[in-house]
Design brief:
Layout lengths: L18 E5 L3 H5 L1 H8 L4 E7 L2 E8 L8 E6 L3 H6 L1 H9 L11 E2 L2 E2 L2
Antiparallel strand pairs: 1-2, 2-3, 3-4, 5-6
Length: 113
């Protein structure tokens, strides 16, 4: 299960940074559907990224049966933090979208090499 930092007596500043990729049918995603549509409505979202307990990212592309390209990873963080957490976020996406089958073309609109 998931717990918001404000729902427990933990200091959010002492929590480790986390990135989870969630399917659009996940109950947590579904409970935030209207906000996610507002935030990422201009994109064809494959999965959402839960970053430090908040939906701050999306994996974008066109779903097909079989391997396909990940067009972009959109992250709604300040520019410095997007850059600093790039490898961590790519690793979370790669946990499902392996390099052997799927190509990630862009991160934050810039080519992934």
């Amino acid at each position: 299960g998931w717990t918001l930092p404000e729902d427990v007596s933990l200091d959010p500043k002492k929590l480790s940074p986390t990135v989870f990729m969630l399917h659009k049918a996940d109950n947590l995603v579904r409970s935030h559907r209207s906000e996610l549509k507002r935030r990422f409505g201009g994109h064809e979202v494959l999965r959402y990224l839960l970053i430090d307990g908040e939906f701050l990212g999306a994996v974008v592309g066109h779903w097909r049966i079989g391997p396909y390209d990940i067009e972009d990873i959109v992250v709604k963080l300040p520019a410095r933090e997007r850059a600093a957490r790039r490898s961590e976020i790519l690793q979370a996406v790669r946990a499902h979208y392996t390099a052997a089958q799927w190509n990630i073309l862009r991160y934050d609109g810039k080519s992934v090499t």
